[in-house]
Amino acid sequence: MTGRAAFTLRTLALLAALSAAPALAAVGDPAERLRDPALEARAEAIGRELRCLVCQNQSIEDSDADLARDLRRIVREQIATGRSDTEVIRFVHDRYGDFVLLRPRFTAATALLWATPAVALAGGLLLILAMRRRIATTRMPAELTEAERRRLRQIEGDEAPGEEAPPATSLRGGPGGSGTPA
Known about the structure:
single chain; mainly alpha; 2 domains
């Protein structure tokens, strides 16, 4: 094996070990585990439902933060006293609030939070439609009134003030629709 290939393999092995270290440290301490495998499995399942308040995107089972370790200890103590899963989650939730739940409950207080993306999308669509309508109406020139046509001819010098003008033509093709004045 060449020196460069050996360096690459050692580097990859080191990176793999470093990336696995936090996960092993989080749940690998045997002193934190319950002796009964069924109770430990329950504790891990509950721990995967609770958010680490330090890491914020990890469960307390996946985090190696001190607060996550304390929360894991609390969960295991509660399970050891015979509490149900719901009671344990409620116990932690009562002390740390909604943020500790990885999947927040849908309540009246969180309804706006859940609805915000849909409201923002609908508002954006309405804004786009309003802007398109506004642009479409500004592109089409408005028809001139008879008084405006007369004034325009006076400015252009085709008509003397008080003189009767020939029949008006439309900007869209004249009386016959041919596009040329009659």
